[in-house]
Here is the input.
Amino acid sequence: MLSKGFVGPIGDDLPSLIPLLFGLVIFFSTFTLAFNAFDARNADFKDDLAMMRISRTLQSNSYIYNYNNFHSLCDQVGPVNLKFIAGISPDAQESSSEAKIDIYDIKFFKSGGDFFYCSNIDPLPGSGDELGIGDFLSAEGSDGKKIVTRIFPIVVEDNKIVRPMHLYVVAWK
Amino acid sequence: MSVKIMHLRSKRGQAAVTDALYFVLIITSLSIFLFGFANSYGDNVKQQISAESSTTFATNSLKAILYSSTPRDVRTSLTESTAEVDFLLSIIKEDYYDDQQIGPDERVVLGKAISSILNPVQDNFDYAFYLTIPSEKRPVFMYLHITNFQRENLGGTLRKFVTYTPDPAKKHVNYFCGIDFEGKKADYGILMAKLSRLVSNVGQTSQATAKTTLLVDDVACRESHFCPKDAQVDLVLWDAAWLGATDDRKEPLFDSAVFNCIEESAQETSALAQNPTSST
Here is the structure.
């Protein structure tokens, strides 16, 4: 005959199963969260490294001596897992000290009919005579995208004048 | 006998609950550790990437300043086809050669070149560009870009609340420092010590350094009339910060009078007034 309150071997352990299951839920939730965080950070690092690779390749030694030099550097970038537009802007030789920069308004330097830009996408339709970052990526089109921008001072030799310029690299997924 | 077994059975149930509670305790500790680790994972790498980016920017800026051409006349720009253009460093060397000084016009030309190259970061960073002769501990040229913060004390009884906001009328001030003017001679020893104090106390900095050679007209020198002098060019960038005095820091990090500075705008105006038509 069983005593009062005894509900068998499993029934007796039933109260202990509640904290046990609770513990397992906590553990696996944290585990999943941690792995998702690792994955997200690793993806960010991959993007950062790709961005650094593009920037370093295009910067070279900070001295671009003509369009062909820039074009060959662009060819060296190779395939990357990001969409990017990189271009050289002449704003460093004409901007005032209080000028504001809007990346969508940045226009690329043109020499001998060639624009100094490098991208793995085509310009948006309706681009005019001047080509700039806004012709590849519009403010409306960049809604919800994580856009990373890097700017590097650089010099470009043009008509025997070494012009200070800025290399803009804009990347997104 | 059967009473004993009953007693043991009831104890076993309690032991299982205690075990489970220990299990939850261990799992919770592990989860907290895992959560903390996941949250801070990659922070160091992020900081390294950011630091690398800032250092590359500083290095590239210095290269661009030293390589670039610039118009010899302060009133013209490189985009003008009629502008007389020379390498920036040539202008500096040429001007330094005769009297070991950088003249007012050349200062303005160099200042304009520096500020236009560093224009993209001017709102976020303050910077100092200086050309020195290390053997003499003497600055030949010193240019500082400082955010013009205004300090506002919001008061409070238990705690003091202070805000720092850039002056909307003039967000930045550019200075030429270490200059002898209005009878005040710059003490280079003090100036370099003050600059070291400034750079050491502004927080994390991105610094780039380059070596160059200046020439001096000295007949006693082996290379008669073209005596080389080793010089060093430094560019230091830091997050824009309040450089004045605080409750904890009685002496300001930067004081334009102590650094013997002239505002770039004032220098430009005087350079144009002294030399209104002819080029430098």
The first strand of chain A starts at residue 63 and ends at 64. The mean pLDDT of chain A is 85.
